[in-house]
Amino acid sequence: MEPRARYHTTEDDARDTSIDSLWHMLSAALATVEGLSSDRSPTFEGKTSRDGKAGANAGSDGVWFDIFGRAFAVFQLHTLFALSVTLLVVTPLVLIALNVVLSKTDKWYLLSRRRYLHSVDDDDPIPLNGWRGFFRYPIVFIAATAAVVGLAFLLTKINPYIIYSS
């Protein structure tokens, strides 16, 4: 506990603290363990299993994380699984539907060199620079990969212990 300016920093170790502070932390830890182990209230009781053990298979696995330090998200593990599966199924279906709509409306000209207007007055070709579309995927892929790597690097710089949190 003392000195407070070093609490939870790189100087928060036994060498840089006082004996009284270490004794206080030890006594607090012992009191906490004694209080938890001697608790006889029904607060922490779970369902009884078939073999008579209390608390077996009680509760559910939870998932929690903060959102940019502004909100705290808490939900059950099966909710995270359902959300992940939904996103993994819905996203490709939306992309396939978008491709079908673009091709049906005659707007799918990814690699086309020229496009003709369907009007009575003018049949001059309009250059679309279709080869630019050929290079869009690699450029977008590199940009997206760089963004993910950059954000992961930024996250480890802001909170280097996030890797050890799960």
TrEMBL record:
Keywords: Membrane, Transmembrane, Transmembrane helix. The keyword Transmembrane helix applies. It comes from the Eukaryota. The chain crosses the membrane at residues 80-102, 134-155. This is CSC1/OSCA1-like N-terminal transmembrane domain-containing protein. It comes from Cryomyces antarcticus. The lineage of its organism: Eukaryota, Fungi, Dikarya, Ascomycota, Pezizomycotina.
